[in-house]
Amino acid sequence: MTSKIKILCLFLALFLTPVLLSAQPPTSTYLKWLTDQSMLREASTLAQDYVSGKGSQWQHSYEQPQTQAVLQKASVWFTAYPGSTITKEGESVLQTLGNAELWQTFKKIGIEAMHTGPLKKAGGIVGENKYTPTVDGWFDRITLNIDPLFGTESEYKNLVRTAQNSQAILIGDIIPGHTGKGADFRLAEMAYQDYPGLYTMVEIETKDWSLLPKVPSNQDSVNLSSEQVDVLTQKGYLPGHLQRVLFSVPGKTGLTGWDATKEVMGPDNKYRRWVYLHYFKPGQPTLNWLDPSFAAQRLISGDIIKTKTVLGASIIRLDANPFLGIEPQAGTTNARSESTYLSLEASNMIAQMMRKLGGWSFQELNLGFNDIQAFATHGPDLSYDFVTRPAYQHALLTGNAAFLKLNFSLLKQYSLKSQQFIHALQNHDEITYELVHFQEHADTLFDYRGKQVSGAKIRNSIQAEMEVYATTPRAPYNQLSGNGLCTTSAGLAAAALNIQNPYQANDQEKANIQKAHVLMVMYNAFLPGVFAISGWDLVGALPLPVDSIKELVKDGDYRWINRGAYDLMDVNSKAKLSNTKLPKATSLYGSLPEQLKKPDSFVSQLKNILALRKKYQVHIGQVIDIPVTKDKGLFIMINKLPDNQGFLVTALNFGQKKIMENVKIRGPEGTGLNLLKDEYEWGVSYLGDYYFELEPLEAKAIFFATPNRTGKS
Predict the structure, then answer these.
(1) Is the pTM above the cut of 0.90?
(2) Degrees (nearest 5) of the Cα angle 489, 556, 240?
(3) 406-418: per-residue pLDDT in tens?
(4) What domains are defined for the chain?
């Protein structure tokens, strides 16, 4: 042995061995504890106990979406967020949500379902009985069991029964793309049984560890640089770079979506380092939907069984399902990572499994129109409306409905019906405006504001305008994220009205915010499909000041300002925090009981709107026309109502000046009934057009009955 080799060996012995020895082999006790905690193990037990070999899985058709059945069952949803729910003293979140008085109030308002949001224990494991907190608002689950912070299984089942007593149903969450760093991931790092097949992770050979970044002692993984992804892709380890890196904040979160682990010893006493995929945060390792072990399918099937069969939810939400597949693109170091055929097939499997068990599903599908069409063919029964949601919010901010009209023309072009969508106000995320269709069709010319404009220019202008109108200096209480605008509906309305300090709003400013908020309700509620409204909407919550949640937003995730705590029934008026320590948001409208005492309150107006929606069966109608208007703030939609009732004309003034305009509309004939005022208002003008007169931010719903039928009460 030469002297140089001896020196090298000595160097390795002195400096490399201590690093390797810092990773300890798992004890048999710890290994058993992890296995007992794992979701994959529980999923196998659930399948055996409830479904496999049972006749129950053959009682329901499942191949085709059952949109009509869902709409007939429940078309008005309340979207909760467990972490934001203020509870009665000594009660759990599930006990508070299962309160009979709350459900009686929901029934009065017209709410037929509750989407609870994520409830299952989330975060990570760093040792036996050593847990780390959630990194993404409980969207990084590590068990199939309810987090004790929110309550118990028996309390959830009581919530289901209480809802049923009010002829309502429960909606749960399935997160098919990733988990947290719980027992399943820790077992995968140890190469234990088939757990590595659960994740999109690759073992890097020891000889190539020099290609990986060093992991700081206080971390268990570190993000790969773009150059490191290139090298590992060229060496055949990785499929390549993602099309988009979600929630990427330079210097704070992952820039490539690929992380390298530290050295981990398995039960075979072998050290390993892995590179794993995370579309979102590093604490959310991505599942592998095409591994020979089919571990991902088994885990998610178990989650479906637990949610539907054990807990009793009737509908599930598929979180971020466009990101269930990734494959290399030949000759490049890039990968196709969105809306792949594998994502579509995985979504179909989940939706069909839920239907096979007698339930339904909806998807969080922020894609272009052609992909929405494809995913709806055999997949989930409904899709979240990411198409017109940013468009109507843009109309409110700018007073110009041109982009909203463009999106409706594209819906028609791609044969997508409004019934297929969930039309919602706020949810737990930001107002997303990736506007994926216009990104994918960047060079295509669209008819926009009277000109032929490329998709790229439309996308850029919409984003720029929303940022100018909704953030600093005009609205310093709102924030931007990598994917959109972080605020509440009341915060959006305040920005549209150029109110710079809504926390100190006077009575007139509060009334104007409420008027704009009701306009948003009218738009969504008079569209066929599902109408969804959140707890933040019901109380008129404003965004949380950033200074009040510094720790939560330190990684650049400003969605937390959307998620202030609220108290729907005023069960704990002294509380300043929720059970999860979220500060109570400033509420402009007050509790539900308080609002229902006032005929002009937000909730009382909502109640009247939903009663009309149900009476005229708007949810199963069909949008047949979006008439051309001269005023840029005027938006009109014509619905053909079911059972040959007639037509519903919804006219909305997104602008802040009065509109008086004659508009040609097709379908309705004769004199119309103003549903909100319950009086006949107008007929055909002498020009043969219909005359619209709307105050700033006013909305009208005009019913035209089929001849020989009347809608007047």
Answers:
(1) yes
(2) 110
(3) 999 999 999 999 9
(4) 3-41+180-277 (no CATH), 385-620 (no CATH), 622-705 (2.60.40.1180)
